[in-house]
Specification:
The complex is a heterodimer of chains A (250) and B (238).
Chain A (H helix, E strand, L loop, with lengths): L2 E7 L8 E7 L8 H14 L22 E2 L2 E2 L21 E5 L8 E3 L2 E2 L2 H10 L19 H11 L6 H5 L6 H12 L8 H14 L10 H5 L7 H16 L4
Helix pairs in contact in A: 2-5, 2-6, 3-5, 5-6, 5-8, 6-8
Chain B lengths: L2 H11 L1 H26 L9 H12 L1 H30 L16 H4 L1 H25 L3 H4 L12 H8 L3 H28 L8 H30 L4
Helix pairs in contact in B: 1-2, 2-4, 2-9, 2-10, 6-9, 9-10
The chains are: A alpha+beta (250), B mainly alpha (238).
């Protein structure tokens, strides 16, 4: 199988980038997209050229490191899959495929397809945590949690923080990510002590990072590899409103 | 600065504060559309126009309605300013766009085009206000003052102004096209207002979506019928 690639190459954050054409032949349709880029990089290294820089880690869809905008979609055409779980059988032999980095002011390009997503880390540090006492672990089930809430919290916690929501959003908004991180704690009893402060601080940090504003387009939900739902954004809207007008927390 | 003012100003500077404002003003404008549509629908029930003129007379002279007219303009202005701020901030959030993008794979074109649809509606609105509101409020118009044979009291003959305006088929076409833009703006805007205000719940989501879709189709359809019906009356078909 053969693919014609148009890959975004950019030396560093300040350099001008451009799409460069590569043709990779002899591919197996059951290779992952990242393995295909490995093959491309092998060829480039053998020719004495600079390999394409790209983020990757676990290669089993759970770490959130891989991050390419493939064929006009975040993580490519496969529904609910990260780039490492995207296989070449999703493409046709001889297809031309564009590969670009996430495009967001808050995710500056480091090199080629690698972006700096530490804005997400700063949002988590602003309030995406709970305070727990040290010491022995609690007895299991001594803190009752409604089953529906537990499931919704688990669904929100599935967010791997890859940034596909930002990449896919026409507004460059990060609200699906932030709302998932707020929701996973807001739904559980352990998240209640800091609930107001969390909503205020995380939204404040999200705005400071320069992400766009949500206008409920829904591209994030459609492209999220972990199928995080828009209902989380509504929950964040409620929590932030309650914290802003209803609580004494500032 | 007191703590309260600090907090509320922080709320409206935040991204979510702008969402709440967009949703609230949007729902307020939706409530206006409902009243406007109901009053103007009187043209369908009386081809002499006197029923419509009586409703219009009430709307033009009732003190509560006149106060709400000012509130309406304020709400509209907030909706426009907030929308423009969101538009420019969102463009700035992605300084470099994608060389190759397939947005239709994950979202509808009209949900992504609220700013352009809103701009089209504003352009229409300026023309629409020039046609009717400016005439009825500020201009000495002989035609408007002309007493209608059916009138009980001294009231403006707004129906004759409608007949005069919609005797031009180009104006009729522009009005109908504007209702298409309104329909798509509402198709995303109606449920979106609820979502922005956090009103998303599995028990009610279907009802909100259905009400929004119905509103986005029915109201602009009735509005579009008005210039068409009056034009057909002027050329004697209806």
């Amino acid at each position: 199988m053969k693919l014609n690639l148009k890959v975004w190459r950019q030396n560093n954050a300040n350099a001008a980038g451009k799409l460069v054409d590569y043709t990779v032949d002899g591919l197996n349709p059951d290779m992952s997209f990242l393995e295909m880029v490995d093959v491309l990089n092998d060829h480039l290294v053998k020719k004495g050229e600079e390999p394409v820089a790209f983020d990757h880690d676990c290669r089993e869809g759970i770490c959130g490191m891989c991050s390419m905008y493939i064929d006009g979609r975040a993580h490519g055409p496969q529904h609910a899959a990260t780039t490492c779980q995207l296989y070449l059988r999703s493409f046709k032999d001889g297809d031309t495929v564009h590969v670009e980095p996430w495009r967001s002011r808050a995710f500056p390009i480091v090199k080629d397809l690698v972006t700096d997503r530490s804005a997400f880390d700063r949002i988590i540090a602003a309030g995406g945590f709970i305070s727990v006492n040290t010491g022995q672990a609690r007895d299991a089930n001594n803190l009752p949690v409604d089953k529906h809430d537990a499931e919704k919290a688990m669904d929100a916690a599935a967010c791997i923080g890859c940034g596909a929501c930002v990449a896919a959003c026409p507004n460059g908004a990060a609200m699906l990510f932030v709302s998932a991180k707020i929701s996973q704690l807001a739904l559980l009893p352990q998240g209640q002590p800091e609930r107001d402060l969390r909503a205020l601080r995380m939204v404040e940090q999200m705005d400071a990072e320069g992400f766009g504003n949500c206008s409920n387009i829904g591209a994030c939900e459609a492209e999220c590899p972990k199928e995080i739902k828009l209902t989380n954004i509504a929950r964040m809207n409620r929590d932030f409103l309650a914290a802003s007008v209803g609580s004494e927390t500032e | 600065m007191s703590a309260a003012t600090h907090k509320s100003s922080a709320l409206f500077k935040s991204s979510l504060g702008k969402k709440y404002l967009m949703g609230l003003t949007g729902l307020f404008l939706i409530s206006f559309l409902l009243v406007h549509c109901f009053v103007n629908a009187m043209v369908f029930f009386d081809r002499s126009g006197s029923l419509f003129n009586e409703y219009a007379h009430f709307m033009g002279t009732n003190i509560i309605i006149r106060i709400m007219e000012v509130v309406l303009f304020a709400g509209l202005l907030l909706h426009i300013i907030d929308g423009l701020m969101l538009y420019f901030q969102n463009r700035a959030a992605r300084p470099q766009g994608y060389a190759y993008n397939k947005p239709n794979a994950n979202s509808s074109w009209y949900s992504r085009s609220m700013a352009i649809l809103g701009t089209l509606l504003l352009t229409f609105l300026i023309m629409h206000l020039a046609h009717f509101w400016v005439h009825s409020r500020f201009m000495e118009d002989n035609m408007l003052k002309q007493p209608h044979p059916d009138f009980k009291t001294d009231m403006l003959n707004l129906y004759s102004l409608m007949v005069d305006t919609f005797s031009n088929p180009i104006v009729v076409v522009i009005y109908v096209l504007a209702q298409v833009a309104l329909a798509y703006h509402l198709l995303h805007g109606f449920w979106s207002a609820f979502q922005s205000l956090g009103l998303n719940h599995t028990k009610y989501n279907n009802a909100i979506h259905m009400a929004g879709t119905a509103f986005a189709i029915v109201i602009p359809f009735i509005f579009a019928l008005m210039p068409i019906v009056i034009y057909l009356r002027t050329i004697g078909v209806m």
